[in-house]
Automatic annotation (TrEMBL):
GO terms for molecular function: 5-methyltetrahydropteroyltriglutamate-homocysteine S-methyltransferase activity; zinc ion binding. This is UROD/MetE-like protein. SUPFAM superfamilies: UROD/MetE-like (SSF51726). Transmembrane segments: none annotated.
Length: 394
């Protein structure tokens, strides 16, 4: 089989967020209610991150993360630190677009009291988004590991899709392109800052692109006169502007899933077929972390559009359930995906196609701080399964 990769993505990967210890969740609740200081919270964060780093090492994971232990939600970091964004709580319900799958799900659960961010003034990055988190992770890793450490990053269109015309003040930006131009400037500066700190591995977390595979959203957009093809193109341009002039030796990945709220709740279904050509050929990233643990993600057929110079990380292992997958079935699914990729254009050998594949859980274990219905011991077993399966294939 092919040799192990020396640079990210590695044969055995994970998606960033890991199960928070109960003590850390308790301390964060105390901090949010004013019952403990920031210094006390950071002490618990540091202790928890030190432990989770060791767990990843023991499981054979090279692209180590801090488990997102310094965040409440996976998308924290950008818009809550970007000058010009306004925090709104509670949000008037008319500002939400109900065709967006997660918004539709929360509406059924009654999302009164929800908060959000919208653009109220010119957007400017005046402080780092993720630099302190990267520096905090470096404290618990060796200099040799620093170039492999992974920082997960919020999708640039996160608040735009859910709010549509309410996403920004039209007295500030006349159109989407102007809005995303300034967002791109902020992301470019952030990427350069992370690079200067030694970061060489970033991953955009973007369930929104996967929503464009959901018939429910496409139908809802069409009913409201929203041009979904034009909007997808707008988001692709936004990504590429964010990544302009990025360092050549920084690995940039893009993660798509269909929702991973607390207790493993998902929001949409539908294979990648609708967006595969654009996803794989028009967005200037190096690799794709794709949900593939259940039928809701469709078949491997869209992978035939994967270019020869890019990598796909197959999310074959569930982060939502504690049961361990069968290693032989995982191997067979990897081989099946390689056969599909080998049939694509341009043609390539089966060996070349297999060399374009890595494996991982399908999403994080705690995109929301409370996490999925897995214990910390389950997480360790799942990551060890990823590593052992990868070793048996490659």
């Amino acid at each position: 089989m092919t040799s192990p990769t020396l640079f990210p993505p590695f044969r055995a990967e994970h998606l960033g967020s890991l199960k928070r210890p109960t003590a850390l969740l308790t301390k964060r609740t105390e901090f949010d209610s004013g019952k403990c200081s920031k210094e006390e919270l950071e002490k618990y964060e540091d202790e928890s991150i030190a432990n989770i780093v060791k767990m990843q090492r023991d499981a054979g994971i090279k692209a180590i993360t801090d488990g997102e232990f310094r965040r409440h939600m996976f998308f924290d970091g950008v818009f809550d630190n970007l000058d010009g964004m306004k925090h709104i709580s509670p949000v008037p319900t008319h500002m939400f677009k109900l065709y967006v799958p997660d918004i539709a799900a929360f509406a059924k659960l009654d999302f009164k009291g929800a908060d959000t961010y919208v653009c109220a003034a010119k957007l400017r990055r005046t402080k780092p988004f993720y630099g302190p988190q990267f520096e905090g992770l470096k404290k618990f890793t060796t200099p040799e590991e620093h170039k492999h450490l992974k920082i997960t990053i919020c999708a640039p269109e996160w608040f735009h899709l859910r709010h549509g015309e309410y996403a920004y003040d039209t007295n500030v930006y006349k159109n989407d392109d102007e809005y995303f131009d300034d967002i791109a400037i902020a992301y470019q500066a952030e990427i350069q800052d992370l690079y200067s700190r030694g970061c060489r591995n970033i991953q955009f977390d973007d369930p929104l692109l996967a929503y464009f595979c959901a018939e429910s959203m496409i139908k809802g957009m069409e009913e409201q006169g929203v041009d979904h093809e034009k909007l997808l193109n707008t988001y692709i341009r936004a990504y590429n502007k964010c990544l302009e002039n990025r360092p050549k030796d920084m690995t940039v990945g893009l993660h798509l899933c269909r929702g991973n709220f607390k207790d493993g709740m998902h929001f949409s279904e539908g294979g990648y077929d609708r967006i595969a050509i654009k996803l794989f050929n028009e967005i200037n990233v190096d690799c794709y972390y794709l949900e593939y643990d259940t039928d809701r993600a469709g078949t491997f057929e869209p992978l035939k559009f994967l270019p020869k110079h890019k990598t796909v990380v197959l999310g074959l292992i569930s982060s939502k359930l504690p049961q361990l997958e069968d290693p032989q079935e995982l191997r067979e699914r990897v081989f099946q995906a390689a056969r599909v990729i080998a049939q694509g254009e341009p043609t390539r050998s089966y060996e070349e196609a297999l060399n374009q594949i890595c494996i991982s859980p399908q999403c994080g274990f705690a995109s929301h701080a409370e996490g999925n219905r897995v214990a910390e011991t389950d997480v360790a077993k799942k990551l060890a399964l990823v590593s052992s399966t990868a070793k048996s294939v490659w």
